[in-house]
């Protein structure tokens, strides 16, 4: 049940162009180092650049602000470039989005200390989600149908109003398209927790959209 990432094409293209131009490039001191840098740059281009749209979408939903999302993704790209030599293969998008998620929370802790969720709140939300059930969320049920028919502006507002753990799980699954297993690894939680958070997020979303005029 994919939903919109929330970026207008022109705005996203401008953001991607800005971020690609800002990616770090190092020059080698000798011919051997230059070849090594070239190989790292090629790996960065192959691994990171194709997924900048997903990175911006995730950062935007986590920070709630397109300009802040660009700052976060630029920081994440610097970290990805610094760590690209250690990239061991696998799902490049999940690897980059993990960096973006961690960078988002670091950025918000530094710039919005009062807006961060208290640790105790997360347990309460997981208890609430567990009560909703841990069965595989219904991709074709009435909640999914209501969300699919929703007005874009109303949908974006409803997603933005979700508690942070529910919102990030919904975004990672329904916007970024990661698997339950990939999300569980990224969030360092059991897969059942991912499913219960997603089910609860979709339920809250459908409830909010059902009240919309």
Automatic annotation (TrEMBL):
Query: Can you provide one Gene Ontology molecular function annotated for this UniProt record?
Result: sigma factor activity
Keyword Transcription regulation assigned to the entry: answer is: yes
Which Gene3D superfamilies does the UniProt entry name for this protein? 1.10.1740.10, Winged helix-like DNA-binding domain superfamily/Winged helix DNA-binding domain
Query: Which superkingdom is the protein from?
Result: Bacteria
The record's keywords, sorted A to Z, are:
Sigma factor, Transcription, Transcription regulation
**Which GO biological process entries does UniProt record here?**
DNA-templated transcription initiation
KW Hydrolase (keyword) present: no
**A Pfam family this chain is assigned to:** Sigma70_r4_2
| Residue intervals passing through the bilayer | none
What positions does the domain RNA polymerase sigma factor 70 region 4 type occupy? Answer: 154-202
Q: Which residues form the RNA polymerase sigma-70 region domain?
A: 50-112
Q: Which NCBIfam families does the entry link to?
A: sigma70-ECF
Q: Which family does it belong to?
A: Belongs to the sigma-70 factor family. ECF subfamily.
What name does UniProt use for this protein?
RNA polymerase sigma factor, sigma-70 family
Q: Which organism is it from?
A: Mesorhizobium australicum (strain HAMBI 3006 / LMG 24608 / WSM2073)
Lineage here is: Bacteria, Pseudomonadati, Pseudomonadota, Alphaproteobacteria, Hyphomicrobiales
């Amino acid at each position: 049940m994919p939903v919109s990432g929330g970026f207008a094409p022109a705005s996203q293209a401008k953001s991607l162009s800005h971020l690609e131009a800002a990616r770090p490039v190092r020059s080698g001191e000798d011919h051997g180092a230059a070849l090594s840098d070239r190989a790292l740059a090629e790996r960065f281009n192959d691994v990171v650049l194709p997924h900048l749209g997903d990175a911006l979408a995730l950062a935007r939903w986590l920070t709630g602000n397109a300009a802040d999302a660009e700052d976060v993704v630029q920081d994440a790209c610097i970290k990805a470039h610094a760590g690209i030599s250690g990239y061991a293969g696998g799902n490049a998008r999940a690897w980059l989005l993990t960096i973006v998620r961690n960078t988002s929370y670091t950025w918000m802790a530094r710039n919005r200390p009062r807006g961060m969720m208290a640790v105790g709140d997360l347990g309460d939300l997981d208890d609430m989600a567990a009560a909703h059930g841990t069965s595989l969320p219904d991709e074709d049920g009435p909640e999914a149908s209501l969300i699919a028919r929703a007005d874009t502006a109303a949908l974006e507002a409803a997603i933005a109003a979700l508690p942070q753990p529910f919102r990030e799980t919904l975004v990672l699954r329904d916007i970024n398209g990661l698997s339950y297993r990939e999300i569980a690894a990224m969030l360092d939680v059991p897969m059942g927790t991912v499913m219960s958070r997603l089910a609860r997020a979709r339920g809250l979303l459908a409830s909010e959209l059902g009240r919309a005029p």
